[in-house]
Write a structure and sequence with these properties.
- This protein has 92 residues and is mainly alpha-helical.
- The chain has one domain.
- The protein contains three helices and no strands.
- Helix 1 runs antiparallel to helix 2 and helix 2 runs antiparallel to helix 3.
- The longest helix has 31 residues.
- It is elongated, with a radius of gyration of 16 Å.
C-alpha cells in the first residue's frame, strides 16, 4: 500500500475534526467559536479532497453535509460576533 498526497490530505482532515471535537469535550473550545466551525469545515473539505481520488459515495455525502453544516456554524458565529461588536459601541 502506498501513501499518496491525497491520503495525507484526508489524514490531516481527520486530525482536524478529531482535535476540534476533543477541544470541545475538554471545554477548551466552545461550539459557538468560529475556530471550532472552521476546524470542522477545513477537516471535512480535506477529507472530501481525498475521497475524490478514492471515491466512496456515502463517505463523501457525510463529509459534504459536515462541511455545509460547519459553514453554517461559522456564518452564525461570525454574525453573532459582528452584532455583539456593533452593539457594544456607543452611539455618536
Amino acid at each position: 500500500m502506498s501513501f499518496q498526497l491525497f491520503d495525507l490530505a484526508g489524514f490531516v482532515g481527520v486530525l482536524l475534526i478529531v482535535i476540534s471535537y476533543l477541544l470541545l469535550q475538554l471545554e477548551k473550545l466552545p461550539s459557538s467559536s468560529p475556530r471550532y466551525s472552521l476546524l470542522n469545515a477545513v477537516g471535512a473539505l480535506l477529507i472530501m479532497v481525498s475521497l475524490i481520488f478514492a471515491f466512496n459515495f456515502s463517505a463523501f455525502v457525510v463529509e459534504a453535509f459536515w462541511f455545509l453544516i460547519s459553514l453554517l456554524g461559522l456564518w452564525k458565529a461570525l454574525r453573532t460576533r459582528k452584532h455583539s461588536n456593533t452593539g457594544s459601541q456607543s452611539p455618536k
